[in-house]
Amino acid sequence: MINRRIRKFNTDRGMIDKYDRVKEIECLEEEIDELDTADCWHEEVDALCDIIVFASGALMKLGCDVEDVMSETLKEIESRRQCPIQKLDWELNGSNGAKWQKDRNQDVSTLHKAKYKKVGYGRVTAEEIQIQQEGLANG
Question: What is the pTM assigned to this prediction?
């Protein structure tokens, strides 16, 4: 339902077929600036939601199903292990708000590599979809 509304937002404004990386970055930067200058919880929530709306719209313009690509991204993130030194420190002392660090020596065979595919929302041709599907089938 949310994805349909985001697609409608972009369609109503004539933006769905016009992926332009520079313009997408400008929109996201504007929302990040709003987050940076937010004076209250409501403004922070608003800015973060706007970031999601614009990022989701950009993904749609690239021909992605937002839920599918997010699922793949989360699988990739979830397959990462924490840096063992940090993990031990956190077990002993807690995280204390520190940024989680991935294990840079993790065996790559244990990592999930996101398998993104185009579904045709933006300017995606049938040929591009076929090439993408063949690429997934071949590994």
Answer: 0.76
